[in-house]
Design the sequence.
């Protein structure tokens, strides 16, 4: 996490607890969500790391659109981690149940939304996921 933020300037990855408890620093490592604060930079040689900045494109993806529509973004601190976690979930399970979404997001803490809007957003995003060309393997 420190290398992403301080060396590469990828400040979308948020520094929260620095101990793997809050999920604010979630990135996709080889397509799977991980707490970047628990990964040493030396472990990344030859691996793919995707941060929230890696989602930039000409338009928003289904997760980003759904987060906006549902008001799942409040203060924004947890949002990058939540979005990356949702991206990882949908890449592996394109049609998750509400329980599966809640389990996947369980490691991401949010102090603003109460999670309901976030879960609703991920469920909505799953409906559009199959048509998302950038979705496979995130």
Sequence:
């Amino acid at each position: 996490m420190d290398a992403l933020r301080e060396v590469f300037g990828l400040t979308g990855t948020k520094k929260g607890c620095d101990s793997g408890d809050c999920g604010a620093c979630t990135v996709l490592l080889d397509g799977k969500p991980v707490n970047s604060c628990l990964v040493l930079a030396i472990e990344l040689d030859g691996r793919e790391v995707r941060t929230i900045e890696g989602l930039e494109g000409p338009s928003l993806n289904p997760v980003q659109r759904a987060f906006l529509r549902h008001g799942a973004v409040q203060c924004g601190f947890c949002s990058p981690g939540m979005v990356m976690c949702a991206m990882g979930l949908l890449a592996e399970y394109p049609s998750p149940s509400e329980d599966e979404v809640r389990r996947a997001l369980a490691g991401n803490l949010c102090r603003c939304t109460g999670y309901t809007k976030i879960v609703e957003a991920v469920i909505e995003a799953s409906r559009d996921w199959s048509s998302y060309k950038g979705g496979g393997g995130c």
User: Anything to note?
Assistant: The first helix runs from residue 2 to 7. The helical segments are 2-7, 62-70, 79-92, 98-105, 116-129.
